[in-house]
Amino acid sequence: MKFALDLTIFGDLADPARLANLAVEAESAGWDGFFLWDHLTTTHEPEVTDPWVAISAIAARTERIRLGPMVTPLARRRMAKLARETVALDHLSGGRFILGVGLGEHDEAEFAAFGDEADRPTRARVLDESLALLEGLWSGEAVSFHGEHLQAETGPFLPTALQQPRIPVWVAGLWPYKRPLRRAARWDGVFPIKAGGGFEQQMTADEMADVQTYVAGERTSDAPFDLVHAGLLSGDRAADEALVQPYPEAGVTWWLEHIYPGRMSLDEIHRFIRLGPPRTG
């Protein structure tokens, strides 16, 4: 099981240079990944930065860790622009980019307020079309796409990504709802969050095993597939090593340490990162 950090982009962390510095620290301390939330606004803090600019800075300043947005709501993105951005980041990082996707939150504040679709069932259909179109744009072939919500007629988008057959896509969704899991089964990983659990509540190993079992039953490919857990370590090394032990057996391949608003001060984040991840064996 690999360990990554999953940080907000609000308040003290609303600074691409600061986030890049933290990513350098994380790489040095032995973390395997560094992921950022993707929001336009928030009720938690008045200051918000752009995660894609920050990810670019992180890609340029690190050499080993995986990186990406966790997660970006495709319903408020243009797929042609996103295809260019993701492939550029894949090249800039030397093939370390992972795309996390989902419906998004804050229907009024982040969608309706900017003239985007706030209805969740509609956004779910847009998400499915967006993924299909994005895969076509990544293919290096001409694209002819005519969906209910999205249209495209274009020649090849080149270059293609360094990672083949495509940039890995992790799909987020609320547990125990099954539709997000069925969607994720068609891609490269699933990132379940407990519905109504709040930031402070994490999925148990048994719940993650249930996700793994369900998704495995929906898979039609034997390609590698990631089960991604939003975890909450304490910083007590012995306690954390005991906490994480059941998760690899449940099928979890990535532990994303959830640094949510108000959880730690900036100094505490620095100290936590420098501790490095716990051992699992």
Describe this structure in words.
Helix content is 38%, strand content 19%. It is built from ten helices and eleven strands. The chain has helices at residues 16-29, 51-61, 79-92, 107-111, 120-138, 179-185, 205-218, 237-244, 246-249, 266-275; strands at 2-7, 33-36, 66-69, 72-73, 99-102, 143-146, 151-154, 169-175, 189-194, 226-231, 254-259. Strands 3-2-1-11-10-9-8-5-4 form a nine-stranded parallel beta sheet. α6 (179-185) links the parallel β8 and β9. α1 (16-29) crosses α2. The radius of gyration is 18 Å and the shape is globular. The protein starts with a strand and ends in a 6-residue tail after the last helix.
User: Largest beta sheet: what is the strand line-up?
Assistant: 3-2-1-11-10-9-8-5-4
- Mean pLDDT figure: 96
Distance between the termini: 10 Å
CATH superfamily label: Luciferase-like domain
Strand content: 15-25%
Morphology call:
globular
Oligomer: single chain
CATH class: Alpha Beta
Give the helix level as a range of percent: 25-40%
Radius of gyration: 18 Å
Please name the CATH architecture: Alpha-Beta Barrel
Question: What's the SSE pattern?
Answer: EHEHEEHEHHEEEHEHEHHEH
**Number of helical segments with 4 or more residues:** 10
Low-pLDDT sequence parts: none
Main pleated-sheet profile: 9 strands, parallel
Domain tally: 1
